[in-house]
Amino acid sequence: MRAADNQSTDSAPGGGFSGTAQVPVISISGLSKTYQGGFQALKSVDLEIRKGEIFALLGPNGAGKTTMISIVCGIVTPSTGKVIADGHDIQRDYRAARTKIGLVPQELHTDQFERVIDTVNFSRGLFGKPRNPAYVEKILRDLTLWEKRNNKIMELSGGMKRRVMIAKALSHEPDILFLDEPTAGVDVELRRDMWALVHQLRTSGVTIILTTHYIEEAEEMADRVGVINKGELILVEEKATLMKKLGRKTLTLNLAEPMTAIPDGLSDWKLTIKADGNELEYEFDANAERTGVPSLLRRTSDLGIAFKDLNTRQSSLEEIFVGLVSDRKGEK
């Protein structure tokens, strides 16, 4: 099954767009990339990105995230496939397509001796945009860079340099913004600031596509999540739907007395002893017709196993991701 076949048409929570009649702002079909030497970085990827959404491409390092972004942005030539960005073919109509796109690369590439405001103005000019001091000032203020506008890039911290990269990407007022591992190597406070900025940009109408291997980043920001591994797009789904569909729940019983082994009378349930025997853990599918929880509690009572407390929790996106990748490995 191709991931595109699994894309929902429902509007994403908080997304502010209607998926049912939404023309995709980016359409990717049959996209693959094989480098010299035979390494296949992408394997026939099909994907549609809706206008105004935040889409997170989630996968481990080396999964193909950066390759896909580089192709869409016209930096890398695909082996096969087609990319349409806001109605423009990225290969046949490169200039028109590229003006629609802003890219914040994973690596920090900029002139270390240039002033912050000069490098942002220069990036704007590269796309043929006339000078607009008020707009550039707004970008720098939004990114907490205005006070640093006359500083040379080399004088900035790593986090501030990444903010400059975002300012450069936004300088020509793109409708689509790609963020390739935007918070890699930055502190928690800066990461939160960037999350707030991304939501602000989406509110202004910019479509955001970010790649990340930080699960919390996708869970915090995205409307939809795509899972990519070894160049293959495993699944694309609404974040909430994905967690509901694939997320499992865990029931934890805090035992009154420590347990060294699971009694034979509880062999019908897949149980795990945790916390030095003080907890009994049971994982179940919350959407199943029979979860097994009521019968488990009755059986523990029949066996005289007392517990002081119980709680359930939903699987995190990280647990879902690990499960998807593990299942995929098992199919190979």
UniProtKB/TrEMBL annotation:
InterPro entries: AAA+_ATPase, ABC_transporter-like_ATP-bd, ABC_transporter-like_CS, ABC_transporter_ATP-binding, P-loop_NTPase
Pfam family, one: ABC_tran
Matches recorded under SUPFAM superfamilies: P-loop containing nucleoside triphosphate hydrolases
Domain named ABC transporter: residues: 26-255
Keyword Nucleotide-binding: yes
GO function terms (MF aspect): ATP binding; ATP hydrolysis activity
Keywords from the named record: ATP-binding, Nucleotide-binding, Transport
Protein name: ABC transporter ATP-binding protein
Organism of origin: Sphingomonas cavernae
